[in-house]
Amino acid sequence: MNIITISREFGSGGREIGKRLADLLGYDYYDRQIIQEIAQNKGLSEEFVEKSLDASPWQTLNLNYRSSFYGVSLMPTMSTELLLEERNVLEEIAKKGRDCVIVGRNADIVLEDYHPFSIFVCAERDAKLKRCRERASEEEELSDKEMISYFKRIDRNRAATRELISDSKWGDPTSYTLTVNTTGWDLKELTPALAAFAKAWFEKTE
Asked: How many folded domains does the chain comprise?
């Protein structure tokens, strides 16, 4: 079984790369499905689950994921429950034993025992602005200054969650198998090169 995980800066095209990789390689693809599964399991709305997981309330919690969640009795909170459920969902995906691409959710850390090919996708600021302007979304109503602030907040929250569950730093090239700067690239043209790299890596590590 081969697992490819995609971590990404907001607006860098990481989600699109993940979907294109899955289609090209014939792998299962997981993105929104993870949120949907968590919501169904917990009897909550998808919007609530996504906002709870991505709003990064972890900075206010005095705990360490790697020890406290499994060894210390804590007053339960919705945020910690959802983070644990996210882990359960990811582990269930891996247990299926099927080749897959997983976007976000710190899957490379949660599933590290499965030795995933982990990709971090980044881009220059102007490239991210351009990409977001080209897609239909509510962010189109924001000024460049507001959108940059939005980028930073989303990425800061992602970094905070990773810091909670791992010693590795979000965005640090040494924390991933491959770091890709999508600035100036057509993602459709870039994807075959990433697929070839991933296949070569899996063959080498067998």
From this structure: 1
Task: For residue 178, give the H/E element and its range.
Answer: strand 178-181
The pLDDT tens digits of the residues spanning 124-146 come to 999 999 988 887 555 457 788 88
Whether residue 90 is contained in a domain is answered as yes
| Amino acid present at 36 | Q
Of 8-12, 60-64, 149-153, which gets the smallest average pLDDT? Answer: 60-64
Alpha-carbon distance of 101 to 95, in angstroms, equals 14
Range of the domain at 144: 3-183
Asked, for residue 200, whether it belongs to a domain, the answer is no
- Does residue 202 sit within a domain? no
Question: Beta-carbon neighbour count of residue 31 at 10 Å?
Answer: 17
Distance, in Å, from the CA atom of 194 to the CA atom of 183, rounded to the nearest integer, reads 15
Using CA atoms, how far residue 157 sits from 41, 75, 122, in Å, is 24, 23, 16
| pLDDT score for 161 | 86
Mean pLDDT over the full length of the chain: 86
What is the CB neighbour count within 10 angstroms for residue 41?
14
Q: Phi and psi of 18, rounded to 5°? A: -60, -45
* Contact (CB, 8 A) for 123 and 11: yes
